[in-house]
# Entry
Amino acid sequence: MTAKAPRPVPTLEDVARLAGVSTATVSRCLNTPDRVVKSTRDRVMSAVEQLGYAPNFGARALAAKRTNTIGAIIPTMENAIFARGLQAFQEELGLHGMTLLVASSSYSEDVEREQIRTLCARGADALLLIGHHRSQGTLDFLEARSVPVLVAWVYDPAKPQPSIGFDNRAAMREMAELVIAKGHRRIGVISAPCDSNDRASERLLGIREAMAAHGLPADAMALHETPYSIENGAAAFRQVMDNSDPPTAVMCGNDVLAVGALRAARRMGLSVPGDVSITGFDDIELAQLVDPPLTTVHVPHRDMGRMAAKLLVQQLNGKGPMASIRLDTYLCDRETLGIAPR
Amino acid sequence: MTAKAPRPVPTLEDVARLAGVSTATVSRCLNTPDRVVKSTRDRVMSAVEQLGYAPNFGARALAAKRTNTIGAIIPTMENAIFARGLQAFQEELGLHGMTLLVASSSYSEDVEREQIRTLCARGADALLLIGHHRSQGTLDFLEARSVPVLVAWVYDPAKPQPSIGFDNRAAMREMAELVIAKGHRRIGVISAPCDSNDRASERLLGIREAMAAHGLPADAMALHETPYSIENGAAAFRQVMDNSDPPTAVMCGNDVLAVGALRAARRMGLSVPGDVSITGFDDIELAQLVDPPLTTVHVPHRDMGRMAAKLLVQQLNGKGPMASIRLDTYLCDRETLGIAPR
DNA sequence: CGATACCATGCAAGCGCTTACACTTGTGCT
DNA sequence: AGCACAAGTGTAAGCGCTTGCATGGTATCG
# Structure
């Protein structure tokens, strides 16, 4: 345990020597087995087994200039927002023999830039990124290295980068329409910080649009921005309601915030949706678990992940450039949205 | 966009040429900046910037035989069990300039073996693994490559591999003692499948020990094994309760199962803890969010993650071998455990 | 039966980086 | 002035792998 490697990690050459063939043959056994005759292959494989050989990834990438790895950078792993989509993404990649490398940026543009560099350096053949907000420098870097990039969780065919996702603005507008239709006129909004988060800002815009369409003045909206977390959602809810004329409905930028709001409401002795309505966005598992179950916008995370993987794989196999794809969301009108109280 | 890389990824040499120095100097600027005089360094750095250069990780690993990367293989990313611990692990690693590479094994020994190989091939300097159950072949492989390994989520100083974690058996026994003290005599148990999961089997053992210590016959326990998921927890609960003489308390191997059980209970019209008590394990965030909040065993996930990182970093810096560390758990007696009904 | 084609394999040139060692200066000492 | 020494930089040898090309052997064909 103290001493250095007694058997200092077997290399291709060790395998070749043991099997009595050249390194080229061993390499071929591992990569294109059908180009090697069975008898030789068996000999090589048993040498591999015997030595406990595992190819050095770096060396392989260096020589082959392909890693079969796709990088993904998500804003956070803390909550479940991206988990399901990423899981599906990974599964689909696995089907095509590719591996996923995940990094998280903590919603910071700078961290994301670093992560992008890191993943590229690690030889990611392509990248999955969330949202469009990104500095020109980063864009240039990606362009210069000509790494295929797919942007997910948003849909915007106008951007040069292909994207797969949904129309955050329209989805949230639809929810806002419903809220307004239920008679709510004073609307609280708890959103993630909008700078450098186009999903959040688009969703907010959706609410504004619906309100404007129904002649509600801009100041009928009480907005509070806070990072995604249950605690923050609860705190924001308290602040939004701390008003002589509090909103009758609080729309949250995602389910995590909404669950926090819901909890705060209960602690404050408010009945939901009797006293105040609360809505979410994403439809994560938690949305159905809370009591009452959350009215929210369902996002097809699994489909998005799966299709993202397919697009990327296609592109890597030279099947032409990617086109943006728009997926549909739909309202899950569960039990936290009710008629506005008088 | 259609054409191949117009500027085909800058290399060290390109930077060197542009800056008018040798590749060695550029390399030193990047790795040991203080060994290069400032004027040169500035010139090099601006060349790096101008070219958008990012060192090729594979090449670097190949040449330096160190990657500053630590691999972790967790059974699942699906639920939050490992999320918090891993997050803390990553944060601490970041403080020491190391990167984390995560893979998940889906609770499969075979997948885990593959992942171990993959991470080693990728040059992981050390590995964080969950639990001790592992085939001899895998152990030999690790031994042969002399990759430092730290086992987490369990504590067992008797094993050759160092571990950091808690005594799953004692923790669960303590919970079982409490359940028995509350008068429960017929106990349902919902556990993860115990083969190749020593955390699950130890927890189960803890319950058995407590029952034996109080003279409860083995058949007073109704056991149901099922993989961790809320749905499975609910289904298992229905089965466990489907009995002419159902248990008065159901102990779950973790919180995810317990939340499922709780939901099933509510759907069956049972009051918790009036009609039946339910306990969990882990104290994930969800445990406090459900209604009523879950009685469970608190596990110091963040501490565990942080200390795991420290141990590994120490070891890599040659500060001697790692010693196993035991952390304390404690009971969170919230509201789902009550006095046994008559 | 010789020519042709093809298949399995070996040879050897890198892939982009680090680092031991060599070299060139500039400094402080005698 | 002459020396040892240190600091800054360059030279070049690999790290472990893939792959284009060369080679020799066997099957196929007229």
